[in-house]
Design a protein that fits this description.
Blueprint lengths: L1 E5 L8 E5 L9 E11 L1 H7 L13 E2 L4 E8 L11 E4 L12 E5 L3 E3 L6 H5 L2 H14 L7 E4 L5 H12 L3 E6 L4 H7 L3 E4 L5 H4 L3 E6 L3 H7 L3 E9 L6 H6 L4 H10 L1 H9 L3 E4 L6 H12 L7 E6 L3 H9 L6 E5 L2
Parallel strand pairs: 9-10, 9-12, 10-11, 12-13, 13-14, 15-16
Antiparallel strand pairs: 1-2, 1-4, 3-5, 3-7, 3-16, 5-6, 6-8
Helix pairs in contact: 3-4
């Protein structure tokens, strides 16, 4: 099969379109013919080796963490999915590979595609949808009347999280550039901070939750926005000791994560707030709940551009500019 492969880390020239063996199907797996794949900053970070400490992949590696397609084969133990089903998924982090003609995934990581979405629209959802769900609902238990600040509201995670937070009944603030102010307002943001004109830390206070996807400077400034007992959740790091336990990291890796996050954890404690790192996990059941919200019209996908399979390198470069509005998607078939 054709696939987008990296042969070594830390060099863009190492990523190429080439041939790889068809995936091997396990008893609980479904084999999906990929129709479309979402492009995420995570793909570039994996390519550049930023996650090799916590995700020690074997090279050559097929990139891609969002997929939509059609089931063409099922393992003997599969019960929830049938041949011909249109599905979408965020593959388990140990089995990524959406930038390919075929991908094998455990059925528990897969959900039926929303009927009201195209394959390209569906491929834009899993990673950002599950990130928003696990941050707002699992970790923060966000509810009606609470206040949340979502950084980078016009990005892939931001556009989805704003809509989910509004559905949960929260007051939503977000940061964005001047060009995207109207977009995030249409999605439901109550307070919009144009970071080119204003500093969010000088305007906002008394918030229950901040979801950070930006750098260390923004992360630390966000502490002052929270009220005592509030939560700061970051999807851009640094990883914390709890995350090391979740992934079963060895003692040395755990100590490295403890050291990397010591500064922000110490500052969070001094502000009487909690800090945690979120590396979202695959979960077909949660994705099924997201499907319901999409089919009900509560949440709609926000897409920027669709690239052809042969232009994956261009798609990654475009996402790396940080200027995409919503998600970027690859049309595979």
């Amino acid at each position: 099969m054709k696939a987008f492969i990296i042969d070594r880390y830390k060099t863009r020239n190492a990523a190429r379109l080439g041939d790889m063996p068809d995936p091997l199907l396990r008893d609980d797996d479904v084999l999906v013919q990929v129709q479309a794949a979402g492009v995420n900053p995570l793909d570039s970070k994996i390519r550049d080796g930023e996650f090799k400490l916590i995700l020690p992949y074997h090279l050559p590696l097929i990139l891609g963490n969002d997929v939509a397609g059609v089931v063409v084969q099922v393992g003997p133990r599969v019960q929830r999915v049938e041949l011909g089903d249109e599905v979408y998924a965020r593959p388990h982090h140990n089995r990524i590979g959406a930038f390919a003609e075929l991908i094998a995934m455990n059925e528990r990581d897969v959900a039926l595609k929303p009927k009201n979405l195209t394959m390209e629209e569906a491929a834009s959802i899993p990673l950002v949808g599950l990130t928003a769900w696990q941050a707002l609902i699992e970790k923060a238990n966000l509810g009606k009347g609470q206040k949340v600040l979502i950084h980078a509201g016009s990005g892939g995670v931001g556009t989805f999280t704003i809509q989910l937070a509004k559905y949960l009944g929260a007051t939503v603030a977000t940061t964005t550039s001047t060009a995207n102010v109207e977009l995030v307002k249409r999605l439901g943001a109550d307070v919009v901070i144009d970071y080119k004109k204003d500093k969010f830390e000088n305007i906002l206070s008394g918030y229950d939750l901040v979801l950070n996807s930006l750098g260390t400077d923004t992360l630390e400034k966000s502490l002052g926005v929270l009220k005592a007992g509030g939560k700061l959740i970051s999807i851009s790091g640094p990883p914390d000791p709890d995350f090391a336990k979740i992934i079963g990291a060895n003692w040395l890796v755990g100590q490295v994560m403890r050291l990397l996050s010591s500064r922000i954890r110490r500052k969070a404690k001094s502000h009487r707030v909690g800090y945690s790192f979120l590396f979202m996990r695959a979960d077909g059941q949660q994705l099924g709940k997201i499907t319901f919200l999409i089919e009900s019209g509560v949440i709609r996908p926000v897409m920027d551009r669709v690239f052809p399979f042969t232009a994956i390198a261009d798609a990654l470069a475009y996402v790396e500019t940080g200027r995409s509005k919503g998600k970027v998607v690859i049309k595979i078939a």
